[in-house]
Structure prediction request, 258 residues.
Amino acid sequence: MSKSLFQKPIEIKISTVVAVSAILSTADRLALDAALAEMTGGTTDFFEDDLTVIDVAALPAGSAQIDWAGIIALLKKYRLNPVAVRNAPPSMAAEIAAHGLSIETATKPRDEQEAAPAPAKPAPAAAAAAPAPAAPAEGFPGNAGVMIIDTPVRAGQRIYARGCDLIITAVVNNGAEIIADGSIHVYNTLNGRALAGASGNADARIFAMTMSPELVSIAGVYRTFEDGFPAEYARSPAQIRLVGDRIDILSVNSANRA
Prediction:
């Protein structure tokens, strides 16, 4: 009997999908086009049809009507694939849906929801309960809070450490992409693209023994290196962190930065 008779027509399983955020501070397509051209340096494969969430939270209040068709076409020109819109007011919902995009609703972190005060009678300050310890980040079995990769990360390969830090003991090659909700530690040479704090953790960092990345990101803030990584940090252990809206590069062994 044919094997196909035992196969289900469709199966639905949980899958991890990584999307980049396109955070708009203007809806002016000319300004957006110029910014993307500068970011990509004219490289046609800078983005690789990455799924993209358009974040409109930074748009000025009372912005003119958004040309969704034009913005979608512009992002696709740079090989970004818009699939959803984040932080959109209800008044935009119908138009967003008409252009085939879903609406991503931001939710408060669980700890914030649990911290909401409940009605209670006053109690002496000395009797106040101590805060509960934070739950450890989700990780691989036997490695709570961390994903460990011992093999080289090849060009075209993407690794995502969801809800935890990422440790790689082998080389990360050009054309590879490594992503973590926490920090990234590469005990070898870091080429390719490295995105830490992917779920919005601005305190995440990127560490490597030797730095030569094409692009780095912390909590969605990007920095590219079209002219090469700063030479004074390229041959020694270095770290990358986010300070405000600026990506900083520092030596692991000193306070110097670029």
User: Anything to note?
Assistant: Confidence is low (pLDDT under 50) at residues 106-143.
